[in-house]
Amino acid sequence: MTWLVTGGAGYIGAHVVRAFRANGIDVVVIDDLSSGHAEFVPEGVPFIEASLLDAEAVRRALTGVTGVVHLAGYKYAGVSVERPLHTYTQNVTAMVTLLNEMAAQDIHNIVFSSSAGVYGTPDAELVTEDTPTGPQSPYGETKLIGEWLLADQANAVPLKHTSLRYFNVVGSADPKVYDASPYNLFPIVCNLLSKGEVPSIYGTDHPTPDGTSVKDYVHVGDLADAHVAAARALESGKALAPAYNLGSGSGTSVREIMDAARRVTGIDFTPGETPRRPGDPSRVVASGELATRDLGWKNSYTVDEMFRSAWEAWPRS
Description:
The protein is built from ten helices and 14 strands. With about 325 residues, the chain is α/β, with parallel strands linked by helices.
């Protein structure tokens, strides 16, 4: 049992690689390092530095593999509006190449990294897998198209698949791996506090208990374990749903994140307050009940534990 992890040198991918190895599953990584880091790939893991657009490289990476976790892609939703063709090429064209090569080598198992972006701004107190999709960016659209590709390919060839829809992935399960995204809340806060600067809250007039937006934050270690569970289920022949939300069911506000940062770091700061950004939803929280039922999914970290793990892994100059 050997699985290919596309994007395995990225923040999430590197955690998935570690989770597979911890569960005795051999792993191969392919990553073009456009946003990943070669040093995130553990020693001894076969690593091919290449784009999924390179069919020959994908063919080599798939040799001897029994399944694929597909995480590689362009993941910046806001920037995707400015670079739609790039986003579609990296997320759709590349996935077509991957599925073509999988079919050619009779590889029938795939776990796809989808996104909460497929829902857009849902009009639901609690998002479930039955909540209507309505992506509002090229990024979200490409993730939904990726799910369609899997369903259509499964009608044409033997293919067992499931898609995991992530919300806000945070923290670290290994001090050598950290989230370097310039757009995510936790790394923004860690970066500013480590430099002696003060982070800000965008919007304090939301219709929420403390006036700041409430979102679902999921620890990357729990997320990685969900990939292992999904891979094992597919390998065993267990029928899985087409998609699963990995959500807490409750959510955490931005102010609660700031309070956790103060407690964890010991830095006494008062966050700045600025007007909310256009399009920022007040609340996006998902139910993880289906994933709990089928994958044993659980969100096992408190907000303080999530932030502490991110802070301890954050690189200091």
